[in-house]
Specification:
The protein is α+β, with helices and mostly antiparallel strands. The protein has 5 helices and 12 strands. Bound molecules: adenosine-5'-diphosphate and magnesium ion (MG).
Length: about 230
Amino acid sequence: MQIDQTHIDAFEKSLNPVKPETSRLPFKILGYGEISSIFTMEKYPDIVFKRLPFFPGMQSALSYRDQCVAYTTHLKNAGLNLPEEDGFITHSPGRPHVLYLAQPLFNADTFCHQLIHTLDPDQITQMIDTVLDAVNKVRLYNEKFMPKLQIAVDAQLSNWTWPVENNTRKLYLIDTSTPFYRIQGKEQLDVTLAVFPPGPAVTIGCLGKYHRNPGHHHGINPPYPHGPL
Ligand SMILES: Nc1ncnc2c1ncn2[C@@H]1O[C@H](COP(=O)(O)OP(=O)(O)O)[C@@H](O)[C@H]1O
Ligand SMILES: [Mg+2]
């Protein structure tokens, strides 16, 4: 992916997280996840950006990005298909450091939570089997490396896309921005980052719960104390 760091810097600078519609550089929101907002920029219409705006400094943003790379490397080694991914860190005065994760844009219709409404029953069974097969690959990988290493995936359908490529469907895990893995039993994800002060106590509580059960989705949608982005 050809992405210009200077454009990311300019984009972050132009962004008004509280009133995103007033931002100078145009973008299109695709959705809000648990911890990131997801959008395309006018300059890169085929690339999805996930903005994670909660790092108190450069060092924590860098180490989080490294953890994402380590996590995705383990997932690939376990046999999962992941989209190409790149991470850009930027910072505007008076705001936390921000990590932008970039991925190729998949058609919204190819996400499993959409396909479950459009495919015929046999295809749905095949899709669910394919997702479960991927989850099982993670289980087998853990069996091989535990207790030294343990990885987890959030396997909800909205985290998978199943596009047709070369006349056959291929399953990708696209939610890689929360690096769920343990080394020697120690969680690598610093959950307190996601509630950059002054995050509400309720959010900390919810994320703590999420954190203690890696891979288990609680369906939480934390409030966004710094605005919708
Ligand atoms: N690469 C992508 N292409 C198109 N849409 C995407 C892509 N990545 C995420 N999305 C959309 O955004 C939603 C949330 O993305 P996800 O990575 O799961 O974010 P979160 O970690 O915040 O849950 C997905 O279910 C999908 O609808
Ligand atoms: Mg997700």
